[in-house]
Write a structure and sequence with these properties.
- A hairpin with a 5-residue loop joins strand 4 (77-82) and strand 5.
- The protein is built from nine helices and 17 strands.
- The strands form three sheets. It has a seven-stranded mixed sheet, with helices on one face. The chain has a seven-stranded mixed sheet with strand order 10-11-12-13-14-15-16.
- The chain is an alpha/beta fold.
- It has a single domain (13-361), classed as Ribonuclease Z/Hydroxyacylglutathione hydrolase-like (Metallo-beta-lactamase, Chain A, 4-Layer Sandwich), CATH 3.60.15.10.
C-alpha cells in the first residue's frame, strides 16, 4: 500500500507491498519508476517517511548523452533511452552505445526531440539489420563521432558504399566465435531472423489505413525516397542479415537486443542454452498488429532469453500508421511469469539500472516479485 507521495524536487521512497519504487522528478511531473537492483533483485523494503536524494541528471533528464546530456553519476549505473523504432542509447561508465541509427525520419513521423546531426558522442553503433529504418543515419553519425559500427555483411557493405572508414567497421555473421571486446563491456553477435508478418493480416490493415489518412505530399514522398536509399533492400537480409546482440558488461550484467520481430533461430537457442539468461531484453514488437500474434512472439523471446526486465522496441509509427500495442504483450508476459518487470517509456526518457546487483551475483533460485 502506498505510504506517501510528494512532488517537486524531492525524491521519496514509497513502500508498496513487497516492492520498492522511487519518485524521480521529471520536468514538472513526478514519475514513478521501479527501483531495480538488476534483474529486479530487491534488497529490502524501506519505510522512510521522506529522504532527500541528490539530483542525477543522467537518470532524470530526457537528454541523450550522445547529444550532450550527462552520464549517470554512479559509474556502474546503466541508463537506457529509447529513441523511436528499435533505436536505443545505452550510457554506461563513460561509454555510449547506440543500438540502430535511424533518427531523421522525416516530416511524416513524430519528432524525436533531436536530429542525427546533434549526436556528437558515440563509441559503438550496433546495427541489427540494414533496412533503412535501422541504419539510415549510421554513416553520418559514425563519421562525426568516430564510433565503431557493427553489422552483418549486407549492412557493412552498404556502410562502405557510404564512405564509412573501413577501420571503424566490424563485420559479423552471428554464427559463433565472434566476441568483440570494448572498455567495460563485450558484445556477442548472434544470427537472428527478420520478421515476416503475414500479408493476410497486414495487407487489409494497411489498405484501410491508406483509405482514411492523408497521403504524403510530393515533398514528403521525395524525402522518404532519399531516406530509403541509405538502407539495404536485399531479400537475403531475412535469413543472413539480421543480428541479435548479447552485451555483457564488466560486472556480469547482461543485455540482449533484437531489432526485428522474427522467429527465434537455432543460433539464439544455442547461445542462450550456454549463457542461461539475461538481465534485460530489448525486443522488437512483431509487425503483425494483432495481439494474438504479437504476444505469441514476445512470449517466445521471454522463454528463450529469460529476462528479468522486458523493454519493447519498434512499436511506434508514422502519423498515418498504427502504434503496436504493448499492454497485451505485457499482460501475456506477466500471466506466464509474474516476476518479470515490463517497462515502456517515451522518447529519450531514461531508465536507470544498478548493474552491480545482477544475475551473476544473486543466490540460486532467487527472483524478484512486484505486487
Amino acid at each position: 500500500m502506498l505510504k506517501q507521495m510528494v512532488s517537486g524536487k524531492k525524491v521519496v521512497d514509497l513502500a508498496v507491498s513487497q516492492a520498492e519504487v522511487r519518485v524521480w522528478p521529471y520536468g514538472s511531473v513526478s514519475v514513478l519508476l521501479p527501483l531495480i537492483f538488476c534483474g529486479g533483485l530487491l534488497a529490502q523494503i524501506r519505510n522512510e517517511r521522506s529522504v532527500e536524494k541528490p539530483a542525477d541528471p543522467g537518470c532524470e533528464d530526457a537528454v541523450l548523452v550522445s547529444t550532450g546530456g550527462s552520464f549517470p553519476k554512479a559509474s556502474k549505473t546503466l541508463a537506457i533511452r529509447w529513441t523511436g523504432y528499435s533505436n536505443f542509447e545505452l550510457a554506461y561508465d563513460g561509454e555510449v552505445i547506440l543500438l540502430d541509427a535511424y533518427f531523421d525520419r522525416g516530416s511524416e513521423y513524430p519528432p524525436l526531440g533531436f536530429k542525427a546531426a546533434d549526436i556528437k558522442i558515440a563509441d559503438v553503433i550496433l546495427i541489427g539489420h540494414g533496412h533503412f529504418d535501422h541504419m539510415a543515419d549510421a554513416a553520418s553519425v559514425a563519421a562525426r563521432t568516430g564510433a565503431v559500427v557493427v553489422g552483418a555483411p549486407l549492412t557493412t557493405e552498404k556502410l562502405m558504399a557510404q564512405n564509412v572508414d573501413g577501420q571503424h567497421i566490424r563485420t559479423v555473421t552471428g554464427k559463433g566465435d565472434e566476441i568483440l571486446e570494448f572498455r567495460g563491456f563485450k558484445i556477442e553477435p548472434i544470427l537472428g531472423r527478420h520478421g515476416q508478418p503475414p500479408p493476410s493480416v497486414t495487407g487489409p490493415i494497411d489498405k484501410a489505413l491508406r483509405s482514411v489518412t492523408t497521403p504524403p505530399t510530393d515533398d514528403q514522398a521525395a524525402e522518404s525516397a532519399a531516406i530509403r536509399q541509405r538502407g539495404v533492400s536485399d531479400p537475403r537480409l531475412i535469413t543472413e542479415g539480421t543480428i541479435t546482440y548479447l552485451i555483457t558488461f564488466d560486472n556480469g550484467f547482461r543485455l540482449a537486443y533484437r531489432d526485428s520481430g522474427g522467429a527465434i533461430t537455432d543460433y539464439e537457442t544455442a547461445a542462450m542454452k550456454r549463457v542461461g539468461r539475461v538481465d534485460v531484453a530489448l525486443m522488437a514488437t512483431e509487425a503483425s498488429y494483432l495481439p494474438a500474434l504479437t504476444t505469441k512472439r514476445a512470449l517466445e523471446y521471454m522463454r528463450t532469453y529469460k529476462p528479468d526486465i522486458f523493454i519493447p522496441a519498434h512499436h511506434d509509427a508514422s502519423y498515418n500508421g498504427l502504434w503496436r500495442a504493448t499492454e497485451p504483450i505485457f499482460q501475456a508476459l506477466k500471466d506466464e511469469n509474474p516476476s518479470i518487470i515490463t517497462i515502456s517509456k517515451t522518447y529519450r526518457e531514461p531508465i536507470c539500472l544498478e548493474t552491480d546487483n545482477n544475475i551473476s551475483r544473486r543466490s540460486p533460485g532467487s527472483r524478484a516479485r512486484l505486487p
